[in-house]
Amino acid sequence: MTEKKILIVDYEPSSLENLARILKNIKVQVIQATDGAQAYDLFKEEKPDLVILEAILPKLHGFDLTRKIVQESQGTVPVIILTGLYKGPQYKHEAMANLGAAEYLEKPFNPDVLLEVVSRLLSAEEEIEDVLPDPDSVLSLIEPKDK
Q1: Which helix (H) or strand (E) holds 39?
Q2: Residue 123 Cα distances to 77, 78, 133, angstroms
Q3: Alpha-carbon distance 13 to 127, whole Å?
Q4: What is the pLDDT of residues 18-51, one digit of tens each?
Q5: CATH, range 4-142
Q6: Is the link from the previous residue into 108 a cis peptide, with omega within 30 of 0?
Q7: Using the 8-state DSSP alphabet, how is residue 106 labeled?
Q8: Measuring CA to CA, which residue among 80, 24, 20, 25 is closest to residue 49?
Q9: Domain boundaries, the chain
Q10: pLDDT (tens digit, 9 = 90+) per residue, 51-93?
Q11: Are 33 and 12 in contact (CB under 8 A)?
């Protein structure tokens, strides 16, 4: 299995370091960005499997970045929004329903919860591929047997 790539985005270096440290517990490659514009460029270049971002970002707001990533990846790259500012169920609902965020966690977040969410989102992607049969086996099922 190839190593998964996670793009983490936060304007605060200590938050980035903290996130990177938490993610070291699972075997992933971590790419870091400190503003929305840089994150968007890295998203296009690196094609991460998952993005974790702070909602408040310089240059390109986290909500706008989420929308762009979800649209451009057609929902194949899950985005987890972490924020210390937008607290409350209405923001979570907005982010998940209208922006397409996969998860919305308020700071301070529980590292175990974050890892659980990350693992679930990364494995969900793999499970889909495992479930799909290859085209030949599908054809063998639908082709008439008595030729």
Answers
A1: helix 36-46
A2: 12, 11, 18
A3: 34
A4: 999 999 988 899 999 999 999 999 999 999 999 9
A5: 3.40.50.2300
A6: yes
A7: E
A8: 80
A9: 4-142
A10: 999 999 999 999 999 999 999 999 999 999 999 888 999 999 9
A11: no
